[in-house]
From TrEMBL:
Matches recorded under PROSITE patterns: TRAM
Matches recorded under InterPro entries: Nucleic_acid_metab_PIN/TRAM, PIN-like_dom_sf, PIN_dom, TRAM_dom
Domain of life from the UniProt record: Bacteria
Domain TRAM positions: 292-358
Organism field: Alkalibacterium pelagium
Keyword set includes NAD: no
Keywords: Hydrolase, Magnesium, Membrane, Nuclease, Transmembrane, Transmembrane helix
Pfam families: PIN
Protein name: Uncharacterized conserved protein YacL, contains PIN and TRAM domains
Transmembrane segment boundaries: 34-58, 79-101, 107-128
Tagged with keyword Hydrolase: yes
Signal peptide region: none
Length: 370
């Protein structure tokens, strides 16, 4: 279909040129028959010549069209629409200025400057339309109760407040962000970069079954966040050429939006903190809300594996906290009563050290007898 349109365009252009130019070109030659001076004859000759030339130009033009289509397919409809609107406004301004400059009737100012202004203003309009599309969209959106509440959120109550929360791939795949958001502890708008969406899609299409499940889980979490009432989830499709890795792109995006990064990635956490970008770490939140245990507290756990030291056994609480039980290796896969001796907070989480309750009671009895 595209090739036929290209050939038809060549025929129309050739016919138009032949109709208007061919009679004048051959009018100075006396040996040319007079019937060739007819514009209709010239239109036929021009159309025939350009029809032959079209077969040489079809393939290169098709390749160029495909490249243009591929480059435009990377952008969203909103990006192209707001960019085109900005470019049109820039062209209108250039026409108005060109009318004023043309009235001056000066050689360079009236002829060259309008062409430069047309290119510059159209380019600036396109860039402003794409970079400020969210602000333009809010200007024309109706003032509902929800938008009024969002305006209240934009009033920064302090340096620690950030309206935009940029979601990382690890936080989305983890899934706990959905539960945290439902509780209402996080306010503002959640932003998902198109780089994160591409990374999730790549993981979901992986040949590794485990990665594929993780990627699909992340996409399901995004859909659930989008459908959840009272949650503002926005897609950001702006290009961030400052870095190649997705983590660094998210850092630059957070700086651009004056927002915070929501992640589970320890390395991204450190990189963002180094660049003075606030971070909300879901793992740190989970560790902070875990129940506090004190030495002497009793609990019942199941020994599931051996510890690193001699005769140690390892158990886990319901929230994933590791419990290291002395002499617990002899009670593998048994539920035992233990007493807490100490706890240790690390970057990976909280560890609890305990002894078997029977052993502790025996020690206490010996102390009483002594």
């Amino acid at each position: 279909m595209v090739s036929k349109l290209i050939i038809l365009t060549f025929i129309l252009v050739g016919g138009s040129l032949g109709y208007n130019l061919f009679p004048e070109m051959i009018d100075n030659f006396d040996i040319i028959p007079r019937w060739l001076l007819n514009p209709i004859v010239g239109m036929g000759i021009g159309a025939g010549v350009f029809y032959m030339l079209s077969f040489l130009a079809v393939r290169p033009i098709e390749k160029g069209i495909k490249k243009i289509e591929k480059s435009f397919s990377r952008f969203s409809v909103a990006y192209l629409m707001f960019g085109s609107l900005g470019a049109i406004i820039g062209l209108i301004l250039s026409v108005l200025i060109s009318i004023i400059l043309g009235a001056l009737n000066m050689i360079i100012i009236s002829d060259v400057v309008p062409l430069i202004l047309t290119v510059v203003l159209a380019s600036l309009g396109f860039q402003l339309g794409t970079s400020r599309r969210e602000e333009i969209r809010r200007l024309f959106s109706p003032k509902t109760e929800k938008t009024e509440n969002e305006d209240v959120l934009e009033r920064k109550s302090g340096d620690s407040f950030r309206k935009y929360k940029v979601l990382d791939t690890s936080a989305i795949i983890d899934g706990r962000i959905l539960d945290v958001v439902k509780t209402g502890f996080l306010e503002g708008s959640f932003v998902v970069s198109h780089y994160v969406l591409k990374e999730l899609q790549y993981i979901a299409d992986s040949s590794d079954s485990l990665k594929r499940v993780r990627g699909r889980r992340g996409l399901d979490i995004l859909n659930a966040l989008q459908k959840e009432e009272g949650i503002s989830l926005e897609m950001d499709d702006s290009d961030i050429p400052e870095a190649e890795e997705v983590d660094l792109k998210l850092v630059h995006l957070s700086k651009k939006l004056d927002g915070m990064i929501v992640t589970n990635d320890y390395n991204l956490n450190k990189v963002a903190e180094f660049q003075n970008v606030p971070v909300l770490n879901i793992n740190q939140l989970a560790n902070a809300v875990k129940p506090v245990v004190i030495p002497g507290e009793e609990m019942q756990v199941m020994i599931v594996k051996n510890g690193t030291e001699r005769a140690q056994g390892v158990a886990y609480l319901d929230d994933g906290t590791m419990v290291v039980v002395e002499e617990g290796r002899h009670h593998m896969n048994d539920r035992v009563d233990v007493v807490v001796t100490s706890s240790l907070q690390t970057n990976a989480g909280r560890m609890i050290f305990a002894k078997l309750l029977n052993d502790q009671k025996a020690i206490d009895d010996r102390k009483d007898q002594a």
